[in-house]
């Protein structure tokens, strides 16, 4: 049984707090100083109840949508809970391996969840035909955590049909240069719900801020399931700041640096191919998924050498042969690769 509640932050709690963190996919060196200042400036307004209208309008403008198609949430995780509780569905399907909170939220809300497992031999690429036609809710990540696969937008769109809600988790899409294959902003796809998070690129995991893009009727259902004032004043200030033109340009530059850093990591991992280390091909996210011998022992040895990586066996569709590694800067990557070589020696 997979532990759907295990996440990368568990690797760096308590005795892992001093480790170099390659388990959590939040961009290092964040939040930037200008964003911290914007958030700090909002504290003067804490005596008033939060008013999300300005931030909601800013998010809508960022995606070229009317405000009726936007809902601000306390992180994308809240959105999964709202969808599970508010939508009347009878056959939800989650495409795995992917982030496990959507399935956990659906199960907590009393739903029986079917799984579609993408195949290792296919490079974990989406086959729309594998999703049952009777599914009235389908959840998929793009790019997908933990595989780092970016599915073509039009392949994902093939999952849409009348009477079905198609939930696309784009929490890492702003880490892809040019936001290739994004569906955020599309209004021509029936039943489309897109989730976005500001956590990863901007280092706001502790603030909890994200949003949902969907048709007005779906947004209304989700909004009625929310508690009053669900997003704090500092989180609203952050949301408005992170969708402005300057922030979007900074995010694009960060995405390009991440792509370069990922290429270096993948090249270094390729040096261990003769020792059974294999990365999933075509990675496009700020992390890579590795298959390697003795993965559990290697993970423990890496901890002893000062590095935390994410175990893969808690993701449906994966097992103990897999680890997920976050993309970091050149110096951190080189140090990790040296440690990985030592860990492989010791585990073998």
The name of the CATH superfamily of the largest domain reads: Type I PLP-dependent aspartate aminotransferase-like (Major domain)
Q: What distance lies between the first and last C-alpha atoms, to the nearest angstrom?
A: 27 Å
The strands making up the biggest β-sheet line up spatially as: 2-8-7-6-5-3-4
Assembly type of the chains comes to single chain
Short summary of the structure?
This protein is of the alpha/beta class. The protein is built from eleven helices and twelve strands. The protein folds into two domains: 8-29 and 248-347, Alpha-Beta Complex (Aspartate Aminotransferase, domain 1), CATH 3.90.1150; 39-246, Aspartate Aminotransferase, domain 2 (3-Layer(aba) Sandwich), CATH 3.40.640.
